[in-house]
């Protein structure tokens, strides 16, 4: 008898968690599992700010997909998905056409630029390993060029970070530690370097605990980082960025480096399907299926769910993506056995925001933490996803054990 075919798109936290949990739960005869991913590696998106700042080399934030999949049960195809046709149950990739009985879409996030002029062309986004490497190389180049040139162009030494959400703050935390090292390496006086975070909202980390936000800002300012709050970035050009400082007032900041960290959207491919979405995120059914498509599950940042208690959407996080993968695998197993699916209920443990590798802030199980405790906890969280997907071996090989 023909085995049902489960096609999983994307080996991020959501897709890989689906596959790893599925391969544990079913035998090779129960279903054919095919995983398609652009690269032959999984990257820890949650560590990308460290690669972008050069704290970790790019190879440290990724591992081969082969390490965590069981080749007896899962066929891995390294290819880029180019189209998803849910009406004809067909996916097209650079490796050809793929059919399915069940589809899992876990194609992740992209930076959201909200149509702001010049950002697509002139800003970087901490979106994947290649982008992180490009940011790191670009900043080194700017320092090296400034040092070598006769007529100094100080805009090379200004780094603008757009957005003071978790991504922006974690990246600034890394820069706070890296910039003094680069100054020494490239003979640049520290006072010449400007690292500026531009935030549209009236506060840093909007909505987060004010006491912890104060701690984070104090820590980052002590490392020489500046904040411009309530001043949305409205345009990027090759020479710099324009920020809105008042009703009709603007300021131009000359810079060669703009890192845009002001929000995310789902993968654009979603918008080309007939599934309804907003910013490429699909409001999924409680069991994680796409509305109107009983054979399509969506996990991770391409999925959107409302937290009824708080009356607002769950944030797109790795924590939720991993849990969705686990539930998606369970629901697929139920469907294969002819049983009903179950509702996905997130189990939120809290969040920790790093401020470099030696400091952090967070709320864990409703308890506020800062400093070394929070920094330690962040590494525990980082290691946990390695453990859940790749067990002890992967954790020992790739984990973070330099606690402070
Ligand atoms: P992703 O991790 O984005 O993975 C998607 C996968 O799909 C990738 O492997 C990609 O290569 C692949 N792919 C994409 N397009 C294609 C295509 N066309 N064809 C084939 N393959 C494709 N969340 C937390 O909970 N805790 C944190 O500490 C945290 N820190 C973060 C730090 C940073 C710097 C950033 C940017 C995000 C952070 N997040 C954190 C958010 C978290 O990273 C995302 O919510 C999470 O990565 C979403 O997982 P995902 O599986 O949906 O997608
Ligand atoms: P975000 O949406 O959380 O924050 C974006 C920030 O950019 C907001 O503060 C917003 O006001 C600001 N902004 C928007 N438009 C702007 C403009 N024109 N000019 C200046 N500022 C502007 O996005 P993020 O920080 O990329 O986070 C994305 C998701 O990933 C979130 O769910 C977050 O919780 C998660 N994440 C978690 C961690 C962690 O747990 N440690 C780390 C990074 C990201």
Describe this structure in words.
With 404 residues, this protein is an alpha/beta fold. It has three domains: 5-111 and 264-347, 3-Layer(bba) Sandwich (FAD/NAD(P)-binding domain); 119-260, FAD/NAD(P)-binding domain (3-Layer(bba) Sandwich), CATH 3.50.50.60; 349-404, no CATH class. The protein contains eight helices and 28 strands. The protein has helices spanning 13-25, 48-53, 119-122, 129-148, 166-186, 210-222, 318-336, 371-398, and strands at 5-9, 32-37, 41-43, 62-64, 74-78, 81-85, 90-93, 96-99, 102-105, 109-111, 124-125, 158-162, 194-199, 225-229, 233-237, 240-244, 250-254, 257-260, 264-266, 282-283, 289-290, 293-298, 303-304, 306-307, 312-313, 350-354, 360-364, 367-370. α1 (13-25) runs parallel beside α7. The radius of gyration is 22 Å and the shape is globular. 44% of the residues are buried. Residues 116, 162-168, 170, 198-201, 206, 232-233, 261-264, 315-317, 351-353 line the site of nicotinamide-adenine-dinucleotide.
Give me a quick take on this structure.
The chain is α/β, with parallel strands linked by helices.
Provide key terms for this protein.
FAD/NAD(P)-binding domain, 404 residues, binds nicotinamide-adenine-dinucleotide, six-stranded mixed beta sheet, alpha/beta, 8 helices, binds flavin-adenine dinucleotide, five-stranded parallel beta sheet
Indicate the overall shape.
Answer: globular
Ranges with pLDDT <50 over ≥5 residues? none
Number of domains: 3
CATH class membership of the largest domain: Alpha Beta
Give the % helix.
25-40%
Characterize the biggest β-sheet. Answer: 6 strands, mixed
Q: What is the topology, as strand order, of the major beta sheet?
A: 5-2-1-9-22-21
Number of beta-strand segments: 28
């Amino acid at each position: 008898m023909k085995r049902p075919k489960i096609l999983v798109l994307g080996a991020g936290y959501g897709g890989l968690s689906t596959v790893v949990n599925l391969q544990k739960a079913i035998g090779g005869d129960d279903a054919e599992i095919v995983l398609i991913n652009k690269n032959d590696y999984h990257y820890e998106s949650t560590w990308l700010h460290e690669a972008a700042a050069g704290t970790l080399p790019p190879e440290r934030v990724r591992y081969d997909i082969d390490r965590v999949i069981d080749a007896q049960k899962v066929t891995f195809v390294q290819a880029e998905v180019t189209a998803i046709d849910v009406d004809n149950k067909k996916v097209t990739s650079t490796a050809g056409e793929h059919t399915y009985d069940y589809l899992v879409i876990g194609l992740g996030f992209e930076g959201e630029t909200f149509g702001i002029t010049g950002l697509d062309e002139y800003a970087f986004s901490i979106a994947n390993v290649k982008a992180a490497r490009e940011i790191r190389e670009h900043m080194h180049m700017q320092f090296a060029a400034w040092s070598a040139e006769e007529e100094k162009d100080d805009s090379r030494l200004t780094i603008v970070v757009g957005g003071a959400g978790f991504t922006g703050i974690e990246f600034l935390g890394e820069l706070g530690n890296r910039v003094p090292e680069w100054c020494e390496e490239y003979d640049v006086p520290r006072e010449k370097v400007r690292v500026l975070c531009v935030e549209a909202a009236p506060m840093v980390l909007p909505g987060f605990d004010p006491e912890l936000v104060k701690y984070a800002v104090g820590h980052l300012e002590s490392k020489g980082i500046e904040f411009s709050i309530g001043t949305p970035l409205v345009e990027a050009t090759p020479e710099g960025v324009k920020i809105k400082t008042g009703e009709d007032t603007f300021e131009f900041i000359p810079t060669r480096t703009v890192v845009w960290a002001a929000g995310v959207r789902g993968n654009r491919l979603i918008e080309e399907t007939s599934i309804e979405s907003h910013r490429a995120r699909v409001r999924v059914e409680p069991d994680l299926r796409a509305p109107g498509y009983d054979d399509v599950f969506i996990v991770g940042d391409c999925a959107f769910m409302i937290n009824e208690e708080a009356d607002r959407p769950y944030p797109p996080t790795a924590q939720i993506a991993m849990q969705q993968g686990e539930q998606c695998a369970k629901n697929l197993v139920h469907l294969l056995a002819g049983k009903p699916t179950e509702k996905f209920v997130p189990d939120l443990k809290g969040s920790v925001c790093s401020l470099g590798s030696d400091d952090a802030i967070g709320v864990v199980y409703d308890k506020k933490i800062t400093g070394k405790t929070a920094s330690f906890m962040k590494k525990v969280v980082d290691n946990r996803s390695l453990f859940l997907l790749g067990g002890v071996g992967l954790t020992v090989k790739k984990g973070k054990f330099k606690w402070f």
